[in-house]
Amino acid sequence: MKTNHYIHWKRNISVFLTSQTISLFGSSIVQYAIMWYITLTTQSGIMMTIAILCGFVPTFLLSPFAGVWADRYNRKMLIILSDSAIALATLILAILFLSGYESLWMLFIMYVIRSFGTGIQTPTVGAILPQIVPEEHLTKVNGINGSIQALVMLLSPMVSAALLTITTLETLFFIDVVTAAIAVATLLFFLQIPPHEKALQQQISYFADFKQGLVYIKNNEFLKILFIYFAIFFVMAAPVSFLTPLQVTRTFGEDVWRLSAIEIAFSIGMMAGGAVIAVWGGFKNRTYTMALSSIIFGVCTFLLGIVPNFWFYCSIMALAGVAMPLFNTPSTVLLQEKVEGDYLGRIFGVLTMISTSMMPLGMLIFGPISDFIKIEWLLLGTGVAMFVLSFVLVGNKVLVEAGKPKNMESSQ
C-alpha cells in the first residue's frame, strides 16, 4: 500500500510546489508593498510593531485549532480554503482602495486576515509533505522547496518595487487575487492525494485532540528541548527579522530601492543555501547542521549592527540568507521523521504557535525600544545571544542523539 501511495510522488510534489510557488509569489509582492508603505510613511518602530502583531497574533490564536484540523481533515482542501479566503479578503480591500477608502488600519486588518490564512497553511503544509514524498527524499525535497521559495523572495521585491513606481497599491492587490486563483485551481484539478488515516477515523473533540498533541510533546524529550530552543531563538531573531528595514531607512536613506536591495540580497542567499542543502544534505547529524546555521546567523546579526557601508550590509544580509535553509530544512525534516504521521499537524501547529508568539514578544520588547535607542545596539546584543545559544544545540545530548541518522540510531 505504501509503495502504491508514493507511486506518482514526483508528479504530485511537482504540482504541489508549483501551486505553492504561484500563491507565494502573489502574496510576497503584496506583503513587501504593504510593509514598505508602512515603513516609509510612518518611520515608526511602534507602527512596525503593530503591523507585526497583526501579522502574527491571529496565527498564534488559530494554530491550536489549525494543527488539529490538519490531522483530522483533508489537508489539500484546507490549503485550498485558506488560499481562497485570503484572495477574497484581498479582492475586497482592493475594491475599497479603488473607491478611495485608504487608511493604515485597513492594511492592519489585511495583515490579520492573512495571518489567519498562514495559521492554517503552515501546519498543513508541514504535515502534507511526508504524505506526498517518501521519507528518504524529504531532505532533498525540502531543500528544493527552500530554493524555490528563495527564488520567489528574490523576484517578488524587485517586481513589487518596479510595480509600485508605475502603478498603485490596489493594482498589486489584484495581482495577488489572480495568482491565488491559479494556485487554487492547480491544487483542485491536478493534485491527487488520498486522505490520511486519521481523516478517515471517528473524531473526538478539538481540545482532546490538541491535548493529545501536547501530551505527545510532554512525553518526547527531544521535542520539549527543541521547542524551548526555538522559543528563545525566535525572541532573539525579532530585531534582525523585522527592524532592519527601519534601520536601513534611518541610516542609509528613505529609498524603496534600498529596502528592495536588502530583501533581494537575503533571497539570493536563501536560494544559494537551499541549493547547498539540497545537494549536500548537511552533516550526517542534522543537529550539527542546525548549529552551524545558528552560528552564522548570530555572527551576521552582530555584523549588521556595525557595518557602515550599504553594499557591505547587503552582502552580510546575503550570508544570513544562506544560513536560513541550513536551519529550516534539517529542523523540518527532523520533525517529519521523528513525529508520527497522525500527530504531524498538531506538532507543526504548536511550532507555529511558538514562532508566532515569541517573535511578536520580541517585537513588543525591541520595537518600542528602537524608537529610543539605535537599532544597531539591538542587533549587536541579539547577535551575541544567538551565537551563544548555538552551542546549546551541540552541547545537548538529547538533541545530538535525535539528529543522528536512523541507521546510526538502530546500530546503537
Question: How would you describe this structure to a colleague?
Answer:
This protein has 412 residues and is mostly helical. The chain folds into two domains: 9-190, Up-down Bundle (Growth Hormone, Chain: A); 206-403, Up-down Bundle (Growth Hormone, Chain: A), CATH 1.20.1250.20. Helices cover 84% and strands 0% of the residues. The protein contains 16 helices and no strands. It has helices at 2-5, 9-42, 45-72, 75-98, 104-132, 138-166, 169-190, 206-218, 221-251, 256-280, 286-304, 310-338, 344-369, 375-395, 397-402, 406-411. Helix 3 crosses helix 8 and helix 4 runs antiparallel to helix 5. The longest helix is centred in the first third of the chain and has 34 residues, at 9-42. The chain is globular. The mean pLDDT is 86.
